[in-house]
Design goal:
The protein is of the alpha/beta class. The chain has 10 helices and 7 strands. The protein has a single domain, classed as Rossmann fold (3-Layer(aba) Sandwich). The longest helix has 22 residues. The radius of gyration is 17 Å and the shape is globular. It binds nicotinamide-adenine-dinucleotide. Keywords: Oxidoreductase.
Amino acid sequence: MSQGASRLQSLAGKVAVVSGSSSGIGLAIAMELSSRGAAIVVNYPPPSLGPAATSAIGHLKTPAIVVEADLSTREGPEILIVEAVREFGKIDILVNNAGLAVNLPFEQQTIEHWDSLVNLNGRGTFLLTQKALPHLTRGTGRIINICSVSSRGAPPLQTIYAGTKGMIDAFTRVWAKELPPKYGCTVNAVSPGPTTTTGFLAAGDEAMEILGPTIQNTPVGKRLGTPEEIAFGVAFLCEEEARWVNGEHLFVNGGLFVD
Ligand code: NAD
């Protein structure tokens, strides 16, 4: 995976917690923020992704730790924050990236799908942010929620997934008003379009058939996005110069969806 080798060390001294960062977009975000000088807390769910997460931090250029914490549980978010603060003493940047998708006809979506998606995408984002806030650096903190074009684009086969991303979209708007006066932070969302990750490629044939013609109509190019392109959008919001950007929903999708 390429990393911005020539980046200025504009985030030197910062600590970034990136949830679900052993692979895909989360890993690309961890690498991009590290390339700008931030120390990184990598997170993965137990038990299978430990080796991937450990090898991931081998690619980072700054101090980093790996924390095993299942953010779909009630306890997982607190575990991640406690470990981050034990190691680095503070949090400057929180990226709520961990998320799961299910692509199935509405009639086939089950209560088990509901529990896994709502508990991770929705409750995990809620609890992780709540646990992080007491440790967020006052005046300069950044909260970035990885949402999805599905939160606004109404894609077939994504009832629960789009619903949880709608929840994150709404969290972002509420927090952008409620939290900066108390914590001096900014709160923004970044919404990838279809992006080449394991999670996306597992969407299934029916979902791919629906998406195929849509992707062909992407204005900037007839292709999927890359995790690095999403990470760049996140890093932009982390920069000091982005201090006046708050409550934004940044779509990084080549113009596939324009709100
Ligand atoms: P992915 O499936 O490739 O990676 C998901 C990450 O979440 C992994 O690092 C995994 O370790 C982590 N994770 C899964 N369950 C977890 C749990 N219980 N606790 C902690 N971490 C857990 O997915 P991705 O495509 O890289 O997606 C990352 C984010 O971007 C998600 O929120 C996803 O909804 C969003 N997104 C992705 C796309 C896309 O096309 N790839 C499009 C829109 C939005």
